[in-house]
Amino acid sequence: MKNLFCILAIITSMMFTACEKEDVINHDTKKKENILIFKSIEEFDNTLAKVNAMTKSERLEWEKQQGFKSFGTICDEFYETIEPEKFKSIEELRNFVTANSNKIQLYNNPNGDVYCVTNEFKNPERYLLNNEKMYIIGIKVFKKLDDGLVVTNISNIDRLNSVEYCDELDTNIFLESLQESNTIQKAPNANVTEDDAYDDRVIKGPGWGDDDTYRLHVWISTELGGYGTTKHLSMVCIKNFYRALGIWFFKPDVFVSYSINSTISDSYGNSHPFSHSNPSLRITSSNNWPTLVQNFYCNPVSSPYFTSYTVTATNTITDSDGTCHCSISMNY
Fold it and tell me: Is residue 101 part of a domain?
């Protein structure tokens, strides 16, 4: 599914507060031609959890220590140079996105809304991917494609560089193509498309075009984990946007509060409760947004589904035009 933007993440334990300096990653993670190398799935999981718990400045310092610049950082830095008010038309903006499609993209909601976002904007692995969206675990190399995750022996790394879609795979070379799913199962054998909810608010004032219209958006999903594991995961992604030229752009300088309570089960009857809240999180840049992932282990052939969830989120946006609040409540 090439228009798919669900999260394929592998995290063993979630950490939602900033890491202390002495806890900021065991430097067994190495660099090889700007690709991160991990000894094991467990080391990858641990690093991913810690990187996602870092502030932006902590993460950039960590990347500097690794001698590494992630795909996520490359895309973020480019996105933050975009000035929507400089585009004279939607066509000009679309041409700009097409010319820079290796870093940004237009994401379409089922209801027809269009978002200008960074590539892999909901993927917590984006800060461990290199510029070719690859990393190494043990003797396997992984590559994130638009329509899945590919795994092969490290000896095939040069050939993997040229692969863009799963249908290009030579099955004699590539061990497995992990197709992503954006499906939430809310009950056994009941498939429901990825849940999302949003709330819009307008500040009346002298804003440029429609840039005084704001949106808080929350996505929630659950899916199977990665290659060679018994991992399953659930994800909540919270982001703010403002509208310009009829297209939604990331909105920085926002205060967000949220609360999440959920229980995931699988087809073998295992139950995995999860809860987290933050009373006031300041979003200071377009890439400093909460993406909250719960990882759990169960039978590798089982399917995860939500037994219940409650997600609430509220923001406060203050611009020269005034202050507005958006609020979301999702329940199952």
Answer: yes
Q: Please count the CA atoms within 13 angstroms of the CA of 24 that sit on its side-chain side.
A: 17
Give the three-state DSSP class for 45: helix
Asked if residue 136 lies in contact with residue 21, where contact means CB atoms within 8 angstroms, the answer is: no
DSSP assignments along 261-308, one per residue: EEEEEETT--EEEEEEEEEEEEE-STT---EEEEEEE--TT--EEEEE
* pLDDT over threshold 90, residue 317: no
d(CA 42, CA 36) in angstroms, rounded, equals: 14
Residues of the domain holding 32: 21-138+181-331
Predicted TM-score of the model (pTM): 0.78
Q: What angle do CA 41, 308, 233 make, to 5 degrees?
A: 10
The reply to whether 45 falls in a domain is yes
Q: List the Cα angle 156/143/99 in 5-degree steps.
A: 115
Mean pLDDT of 20-35: 47
Displacement of CA 172 from its chain's centroid (Å)? 31
Domain count, the chain: 1
Tell me, yes or no, whether 161 lies in a domain: no
| φ and ψ at residue 315, rounded to 5 degrees | -125, 165
The whole-chain average pLDDT of the chain stands at: 76
How do residues 55-96 score in pLDDT, each as one tens digit?
Answer: 888 999 999 999 999 999 999 999 999 998 899 999 999 999
Contacts of 204 (CB under 8 A, 6+ apart): 212, 321, 322
Residue 153 lies inside a defined structural domain of this protein: no
